[in-house]
Every structure is written in structure tokens, then in C-alpha cells.
Amino acid sequence: MRTLLCSLLALSLLMLCAGCGGSARHTVITNEDGSMLGLVITPEPQALGIDRGDDFYLDWPAGYAPPREFTVRLRQVDTDATTEAVLTNLHTLSTGHYRLSPASTLPAGAFLLLTITSNREAVRAMYLTDDDAFGVTREAKPGAEGQEEHTVRTR
């Protein structure tokens, strides 16, 4: 009996942890009748060097409403244009205010594509995550090839 109880407890814990991994896509039903107009995304789209622990926020300010239904995805984009899903959790803070949290730390120096789509519209934002060596100033060695300054003249 004790072994059966321990087995059931272990299985319950495993099932609970399996549900914590996030999802590749989230669909939100808002019962509003708005659009993507007014959507504010944080961090600002096209930001470089975002923190690898950052969450993403989707906000429709006062006077704007989200679409009745929309889908949110975060993908990592490689230099050869292949994409891989980033597992995330979506939290509804209130109607028109959402937080997208990566299920694990984002990879260093990676391009990310955040896509929010409704049946009529799509909004996309690209990001570059902070690289471990990002921000480290590299100094030129004396006698190294290259030039400090270049002058370009056009006609």
C-alpha cells in the first residue's frame, strides 16, 4: 500500500512538472471587439541586447481594445532563416494587459521574433538578446592592422 501511495505521489509530481514547461503558442479570447491598433509591446520592438531574463508585455492603453481573439508566439530565428519555438507562459494581468514569460532563460546573442496575430492583422517584433560578451570593450593592440577613422567622399 505504501509503495502504491509513493508511486501515485511521484506520478502526480511528474505530471505537475510536465505542465510547467510552457507552450509554443497561446490563444487569448478577450470578448472585446478591438484590433491591433494601439498595441504597445515592451521591450520596445527591434531592441538590441535585451536581458535574457526579460518578460514581454502586451498592452492596449485606454481608448484601445484588443481583438476578440489573438495568438501570441515567440520564436528563435537562426542566421539561415530557420526558426525554433521558444516555450513561454502567458499571464493575463487584466483585459488588454498581458505578460509573456519565457519558460527558461533566453539564449545568448539570439534573434527572437515575437508575433501577435488576429484573424485580420499581424504584428511582429524582432529582438536580439544580450550576448555574454556583449558590452565588453575590445581595445586594438598597438601595431594592429586597420584604421581608427575612415573618410568617405561621394561626388
Characterise this structure.
- The chain has a domain of 99 residues: Immunoglobulin-like (Sandwich).
- Helices cover 11% and strands 35% of the residues.
- The protein has one helix and ten strands; from the N terminus they run αββββββββββ.
- The radius of gyration is 22 Å and the shape is globular.
- The N and C termini lie far apart (89 Å).
- The relative contact order is 0.21.
- The N terminus is likely disordered.
In summary, what is this structure?
By secondary structure, the protein is mainly β. It contains 1 helix and 10 strands; from the N terminus they run αββββββββββ.
Top keywords for this entry?
155 residues; mainly beta; Immunoglobulin-like; six-stranded mixed sheet; four-stranded antiparallel sheet; 11% helix; disordered N terminus
Distance between the termini: 89 Å
Mean pLDDT: 81
Shape: globular
CATH architecture of the domain at 31-129: Sandwich
What is the tally of helical segments? Answer: 1
The share of residues in helices is 10-25%
Which runs of at least 5 residues are low in confidence (pLDDT < 50)?
A: 3-19, 134-141
* Biggest sheet architecture: 6 strands, mixed
Radius of gyration computed on alpha carbons? 22 Å
CATH top level of the domain at 31-129?
A: Mainly Beta
- Derived structural class: mainly beta
Query: What portion of the residues fall into strands of 2 or more residues?
Result: 35-45%
The CATH topology of the domain at 31-129 turns out to be Immunoglobulin-like
Strand/helix succession? HEEEEEEEEEE
Count of individual beta strands: 10
